[in-house]
C-alpha cells in the first residue's frame, strides 16, 4: 500500500456526498465510497469527483459483512467514516423495519468487520486507526421552550423509529470502544440543509413545491423548532473530529440557528420572491398550507456545541441567512440534478405521506 486511504459509507447520500466533495478538495488521502444506492443515494451528486484519482466507488451494503471485510483487506484504510443510514422520520413511521435493518443491524455488521480488520493491524496501525460514526441530535428526544440545549451528557430519549434505530447504533459504537478498545468517535448533529438534499426534507421540498406552484405543507402549527446546520459546516466538523477527536468521545455539532419551521418556510419564500418571482406575481407565502401533524413530532431540538468548539477548534462559518440563500440559489441553478431526483417513485412517496394529511 503506497497511499493512505479512508472508507466512507453512505457517500452518495446528502451529507455523505457533500463530505466526499469536501474531502477530495482539501485532503490528500484517497477516499473509497461504499454505498448501497438506495432511493436517497445518488451518484449524480458526485459527478464532479467521479474521475478524480483520489476517489473510488464501491457498490455494497454496510450489512454485508463479507463485502465490507473484503474491501477493508483490499484497501487498508486508516479510518472508516459511517454516514450510511436511513434518515427520514416520516419514512420510519411508515416502514420501521428498514431503519432497524440498516441503522442498527447494518451498523453492527460494519462494526464486526471493522473490529476484525483493526484487530489484525500492527500496534502502531491500531493506534492510528479511527472509526467515526455520524449520528443525530434526535436521539436525545424533544426539548420544551426555554430548556437548555442538548449536551453530550443528555440522556437518550428517542421518540421515532428513526431516532430509536440511530440511538441503538450509537450505543453499539460506544460498546465496541469500551468492550473491545475500538478507537471510535461519534458525532451528533442538528438538522442539516444545503446542496444535494433529497426533496422529501423540509427545505428542498418547500423550494421545489414553490417553484412548481404547489402547496407548501407545514405540519401542525409550524412552531416546531430545529437548530439548522449548513452541510458544509457539518462536513468541516467531521474532518476535524476525525483528525483531532479523542477516542471514545462524543461531539455535538450544531449551527446555533434555532428556527421554527414556519419561519424557515417564510424565509425561503422571501428569497424566492426576490430571485425567481412567481409568474402570477403572488408571494410564495400564499402557497403555505398547514396539514395534520405527524405522530410523535418532537417539539424542539437545540445543540450545545461548546465541546466541539473547545476540543476541535470548530465553529460554523455560515449563519442561517447566508446558508439558506446559498441553498436556494443552488436549487435554482441545478435543475438537471433536481429533475433526475424527482422520479415517479418520489412522487408516489409524496402522495403516500402528504396525501393522507388533510389541511387544517
- CATH classification, class level of the domain at 5-194 and 228-257 and 297-320: Alpha Beta
In which range does the helix fraction lie? 40-55%
The whole-number mean of residue pLDDT values reads 93
The end-to-end span amounts to: 61 Å
**SS field, number of helical segments:** 13
Strand content bin = 15-25%
Order of neighbouring strands in the sheet with most strands: 3-2-1-4-5-6-10
The CATH superfamily label of the domain at 5-194 and 228-257 and 297-320 reads NAD(P)-binding Rossmann-like Domain
Enumerate the spans where pLDDT stays under 50 for 5 or more consecutive residues. Answer: none
Radius of gyration: 20 Å
Describe the global form: globular
Total beta strands: 12
Query: Structural class of the secondary structure composition?
Result: alpha/beta
The H-and-E topology, N to C, reads as EHEEHEHHHEHEEHEEHEEHEHHHH
Largest sheet, if any?
7 strands, parallel
CATH topology of the domain at 5-194 and 228-257 and 297-320: Rossmann fold
CATH architecture of the domain at 5-194 and 228-257 and 297-320: 3-Layer(aba) Sandwich
Summarize the structure.
With 360 residues, this protein is of the alpha/beta class.
What does the model show?
Helix 1 (14-26) packs across helix 8 (231-244), helix 2 (65-75) runs parallel beside helix 4 (96-119) and helix 7 packs across helix 9 (261-275). The termini are far apart. The protein is an alpha/beta fold and 360 residues long. It has helices at 14-26, 65-75, 89-94, 96-119, 123-128, 161-180, 202-212, 231-244, 261-275, 306-312, 320-333, 335-341, 344-354; strands at residues 5-9, 30-35, 55-59, 79-82, 130-136, 184-189, 191-193, 216-219, 225-230, 249-253, 258-260, 288-291. The chain has a seven-stranded parallel β-sheet with strand order 3-2-1-4-5-6-10, with helices on both faces. Strands 7-9-11 form a three-stranded mixed β-sheet. 44% of the residues lie in helices and 16% in strands. The chain is globular and about 65 Å long. The longest helix is centred in the N-terminal third of the chain and has 24 residues, at 96-119. The protein has a domain at 5-194 and 228-257 and 297-320: Rossmann fold, CATH 3.40.50.
Amino acid at each position: 500500500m503506497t497511499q493512505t486511504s479512508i472508507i466512507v459509507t453512505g457517500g452518495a447520500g446528502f451529507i455523505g456526498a457533500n463530505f466526499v466533495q469536501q474531502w477530495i478538495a482539501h485532503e490528500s488521502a484517497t477516499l473509497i465510497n461504499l454505498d448501497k444506492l438506495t432511493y436517497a443515494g445518488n451518484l449524480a451528486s458526485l459527478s464532479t469527483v467521479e474521475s478524480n484519482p483520489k476517489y473510488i466507488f464501491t457498490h455494497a451494503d454496510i450489512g454485508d459483512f463479507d463485502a465490507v471485510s473484503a474491501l477493508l483487506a483490499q484497501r487498508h484504510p486508516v479510518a472508516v467514516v459511517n454516514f450510511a443510514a436511513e434518515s427520514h422520520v416520516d419514512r420510519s413511521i411508515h416502514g420501521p423495519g428498514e431503519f432497524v435493518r440498516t441503522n442498527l443491524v447494518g451498523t453492527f455488521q460494519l462494526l464486526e468487520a471493522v473490529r476484525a480488520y483493526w484487530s489484525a493491524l500492527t500496534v502502531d496501525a491500531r493506534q492510528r486507526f479511527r472509526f467515526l460514526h455520524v449520528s443525530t441530535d434526535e436521539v436525545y428526544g424533544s426539548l420544551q421552550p426555554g430548556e437548555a440545549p442538548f449536551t453530550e451528557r443528555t440522556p437518550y430519549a428517542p421518540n421515532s423509529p428513526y431516532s430509536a434505530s440511530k440511538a441503538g447504533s450509537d450505543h453499539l459504537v460506544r460498546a465496541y470502544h469500551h468492550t473491545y478498545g475500538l478507537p471510535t468517535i461519534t458525532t451528533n448533529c442538528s438538522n442539516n440543509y444545503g446542496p444535494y438534499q433529497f426533496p422529501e426534507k423540509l427545505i428542498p421540498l418547500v423550494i421545489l413545491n414553490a417553484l412548481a406552484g404547489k402547496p407548501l405543507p407545514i405540519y401542525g402549527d409550524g412552531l416546531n423548532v430545529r437548530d439548522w446546520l449548513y452541510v458544509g459546516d457539518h462536513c468541516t466538523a467531521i474532518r476535524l473530529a476525525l483528525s483531532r477527536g479523542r477516542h471514545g468521545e462524543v461531539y455535538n455539532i450544531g449551527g446555533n440557528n434555532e428556527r421554527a419551521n414556519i419561519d424557515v418556510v417564510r424565509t425561503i419564500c422571501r428569497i424566492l420572491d426576490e430571485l425567481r418571482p412567481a409568474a402570477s406575481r403572488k408571494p410564495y407565502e400564499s402557497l403555505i398550507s398547514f396539514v395534520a401533524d405527524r405522530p410523535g413530532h418532537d417539539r424542539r431540538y437545540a445543540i450545545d456545541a461548546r465541546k466541539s468548539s473547545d476540543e476541535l477548534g470548530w465553529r460554523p462559518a455560515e449563519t442561517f441567512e447566508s446558508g439558506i440563500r446559498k441553498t436556494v440559489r443552488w436549487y435554482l441553478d441545478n435543475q438537471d440534478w433536481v429533475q433526475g431526483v424527482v422520479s415517479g417513485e418520489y412522487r408516489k412517496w409524496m402522495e403516500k405521506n402528504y396525501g393522507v394529511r388533510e389541511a387544517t
